[in-house]
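Deliverable D5.2: sample structural annotation.
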Amino acid sequence: MASNSSNRLVNPSAREAMDKFKMEAASEVGVNLKNGYNGDLTSRQAGSVGGQMVKKMIESYENGMK
């Protein structure tokens, strides 16, 4: 199935949960995200938010396996 956007969520109602998750991860690594446009972040800041999100997802998966 082709898509115009690689970051489109299958379930649109999941957008709110993902945004909350992203804000929590950003807060944990000390990056101040705002609602809407965040294109003024440095690559380092954006990467640290993404990395924290992945870390939390892996931890959640591992805890679910126990």
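Annotation notes: The chain has a mean pLDDT of 88. Helices lie at 14-28, 43-65.
The annotation will be released with the project's public dataset once the embargo ends.
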